[in-house]
Amino acid sequence: MELMDMLTECGAIKFGKFILTSGKESSYYIDIKMASTRPRILRRIAEEMAKHVDGTRVAGMELGAVPIATAVALQADLPFCILRKKPREHGTGSQIEGEVKPGETVTVVEDVATTGGSIVLSVKLLRAAGAVVKRAIVVVDREEGAAEALRAENVELVALVKRSQLMQGKN
Question: Which CATH number characterizes residue 59's domain?
Answer without folding.
Answer: 3.40.50.2020
